[in-house]
Amino acid sequence: MSVSPGPGDRYVVGVDYGTLSGRALVVRVGDGAELGTAVHDYRHGVMDSVLAVDGRALPADWALQDPQDYRDVLRHAVPAALAASGIDPRRVVGVGIDFTACTVLPTLADGTPLCELPELRTRPHAWVKLWKHHAAQPQADRINALAHARGEPWIGRYGGKISAEWQFAKGLQLLEEDPEVYHRAERWIEAADWIVWQLCGVETRNVCGAGYKGLYQDGRYPSRDYLAALHPGFADFVAKIDGPLAPLGARAGGLTARAAAWTGLPEGVTVAVGNVDAHVTAAAARALDPGRLVVIMGTSTCHMVNATELSEVAGMCGVVDGGISAGSWGYEAGQSAVGDIFGWYVAHAAPAGYASHEALTAAAAAQPVGAHGLVALDWWNGNRSPLVNHDLSGLIVGLTLATRPPDVYRALLESTAYGTRMIIEAYAEAGVPVDELIVAGGLTANALLMQIYADVTKRPLGIIGSAQGPALGSAIHAAVAAGAYPDVPAASAAMGRVDRDVYRPDPERARAYDALYAEYRRLHDHFGRGGDDVLLRLRAIRNAARRAVDHDPAG
User: Fold this and answer.
1) Are 237 and 326 found together in one domain?
2) Can you give the CATH number for the domain in which 452 is found?
3) Is the residue at 540 inside a domain?
4) CB-hemisphere CA count at 13 Å for 48?
């Protein structure tokens, strides 16, 4: 495939907003060739300990961001990617956006973020709440309990539990902890939709975010009566998120003059409806057919699969009609921490001599399955699926004085594979088939990890043929929005890429992992399903101790 621009070629730009940075990718419409890319790091990163504007301490489990960092990606990464590609920007026909989700912010009716109002700059609840803001777990617990008590029909579409990460839990936390900011918020919007609004001046809501993160099912949100029963002041919440929903691959509008100046693109260029980073990657990986589980592995992991039939899968993040591509039921599950766990160990726990992933991986790869005598629970950032409880925490069982850093590292790698197998088995038990894994994300570079996943899950594992899966997926949707293809599957077939069956399960190792996985399941159910709530009690003790320090005048 030639990656040189041609005189008659048309191009699209995909912009992928991650946890710490945004990436722009210039892609040729005809064949998906990637011609230029650039990354811009968020200046404020993740605010999880202090608010950047005044240094005030944030409570436990908070994670905030600055929306100006998102605009800066458009101002820096997009022009840099265009320059790197060597193309004429006038040949660009569309722009597509994806975002980590649920990342949500309160705004005025014109889209102005509340944190940019001078009088609200120092109010933490006025800022963007990143996907991994988990401080709304008490609100999520109440939302779930009331939904089951009332027999709300939508709760089954989310595996019986909604997440603390999602729009309604975060919105209820806002109301209860800062009612003034709640009432000032005229719109409560996913960051993907907000960025599209910034680009084309038109507010749109994408069906993916609304369905998976906003509880939109069968043409409606949860009822006003239900919301009022949660809190009388919450009855009007839907008014802050309601609006016409747009299908994935649709045109949201044209680039405004202001956004054209930011990006270096011509005014009026098509802007596609926003999307979620995990879901958009399925198109990039040519994985829209049923049975192909897309596993997007980075700081966390998302598991996406299409199916022809509707099923309710216990503990999953959700099932949405057209949530991945039109005409299929899209299923989502996830793990709240994967790469973050490995990074934590390297940065904070591994001693000198093992202070890199490469060194630990090389040593761990020399071990036979089970030689370390360890099993870990991969709950360093809670459990997204199937337990949907972000108050849970991680665990390593089997440590001795003979345990060495590579032993722990391999056990952590394996624990995340066990978590993925739990998800696959939950899908299968509900009648949603998973025949193969297609992995995307930065962790695909770790061959040991990929082979562990193939062995543990007993399924062939392919690798997406792009290092920029979400950005390529957004570019594919931009091509559809611009009219270059009739639908997303057609664009995916032409522009996506995947290397199938790169890793195959080894029967002997797979049998050895069955025994370890059985121990993982016992621990999983004991500590996660009520056998012993010690992890929850420890978190409560920790939170109480931190609050005491925060409120100590002498501190």
Assistant:
1) no
2) 3.30.420.40
3) yes
4) 13
pLDDT tens for 137-181 read: 999 999 999 999 999 999 999 999 999 999 999 999 999 999 999
- Residues 190 and 163 placed together within one structural domain of the fold: yes
Which of 276, 310, 335 is at the close of a domain?
A: 276
Quote the domain boundaries for residue 36: 11-276
Average pLDDT over residues 279-291: 97
| Structural domains of the chain, count | 2
Closest CA to 272 of 250, 255, 257: 250
Residues 78 and 141 placed together within one structural domain of the fold: yes
pLDDT tens digits, 406-436: 999 999 999 999 999 999 999 999 999 999 9
CA–CA dist 294, 328 (Å, integer): 15
CA 109 – CA 314 distance, rounded (Å): 37
pTM for the structure as a whole: 0.90
CA 309 distance to own-chain centroid: 24
**CA of residue 450 relative to chain centroid, distance:** 20
Yes or no: say if 284 and 476 are a contact pair by the CB < 8 Å rule. yes
In terms of phi and psi (left: phi > 0; alpha: psi -120 to 50; beta: otherwise), the region of 218 is: left
Share of the chain above pLDDT 90, in %: 94
Are both 246 and 292 inside the same structural domain? no
Pick from 206, 138, 145, 201: nearest CA to 169: 138
Are 21 and 134 contained in the same domain?
yes
Name the more confident of 549 and 389: 389
